[in-house]
Amino acid sequence: MKAIVYIRLKSEVLDPQGQAIESALKNLGENDIKNVRQGKLIEMDIQADNKKDAEEKIEKITKSLLANTVIEEYSIEIG
Amino acid sequence: MKAIVYIRLKSEVLDPQGQAIESALKNLGENDIKNVRQGKLIEMDIQADNKKDAEEKIEKITKSLLANTVIEEYSIEIG
Q: How far is B23 from chain A (nearest CA, A)?
């Protein structure tokens, strides 16, 4: 099964990478783009009996390893 | 308009971050997860007259600034 975990900084957390992109865009003359935020995505193949098992397993590893839940939020897509 | 650009390493490009995650998972006893690949996502608000204009603009900045198209591929989601 394919799975993707999307990890984003919580909205109240400052995002210096996003700000750097926004400022680079401004320097290129692009003023119509605002509120740039950078996150990450992690794709993987998972072996599980069913979608529910896969989701539980991925939620576990996301909380323990992939995301820092103090400052990040995540969503999981399986299919 | 909200837009998200998903950027992934091309499949033929080595992904050391993904390998590091996979190896950390193995050390935690998780052997059912394979082929881990890490990418990034960039979210933004864009001001444009319509979806087509927004898409063209975002494709332009993705090629010129956000993605390294030699080693990365991207997809754009607007909505």
A: 12
